[in-house]
Target: Orotate phosphoribosyltransferase
Amino acid sequence: MTWTQRSHDLLAELGGFLLGASCAGCDLPGVLLCAGCRSSLVPALVDGRTPSGLDVRAALSFEGVAARCIRRLKGDGETLLARPLGDALAAVLVPAIDAARGAGEVLVVPVPTTRSAFRRRGYRVPDLLIRRAGARTAQLLRIVRSREDQRGLGVVERAQNVHGAMRARRSGAGERVVLVDDVVTTGATLDEATRALSAAGYRVISAVALAATPSRRGLTGHSSSTHRRHGGNDP
Ligand SMILES: [Zn+2]
Model:
């Protein structure tokens, strides 16, 4: 082992000790995200459709390293992960904005989070990811009715649970919208967001998500093959 390697290892170890850091994907100490896990965040696009027929494209499948990184961001406040995850989101968000662009500008609208989640985290996950993906957010939606936890619910129950939960903050005049969520399961939340925005005069063109759950209860896939391509900054 050369001195350079040794000092590098020592620095990594010290850094890990000082920061208490470990890889979000595999718990390797001393790094936020190791090279191997970083390569697992290269987008592998998942296409699907919500129960109401809105096209959704997700950058990643919500499993393995990607799922662990997203949980670390959402649950443990590891906001530095928003950078690599935002890079992954950019791979689906940027083309969606381009495709939705008509005569005017495209509004990028995050799915709203509850006030209690915002208080707990101090940030809104979809908004943070959009900013890290290099786009501007239009916070057009708010939650007007609390809902039950969606976990464990099927497609129909999720749709019923979320119906009427959102409202637009102001009315629109046909502006085009791309919706963004962090993790999409059945798409019921995206359908409710679309309902609220359409009722206020906006036109939702498509939706993108950072990740889609691979569950069989989930989105209706219309292109079962996921195509892998490079995105973000890393090989
Ligand atoms: Zn790792």
User: Anything to note?
Assistant: The CA atoms of residues 118 and 124 lie 6 Å apart. The beta strands are 46-49, 55-61, 106-110, 141-143, 166-168, 176-184, 203-212, 220-223.
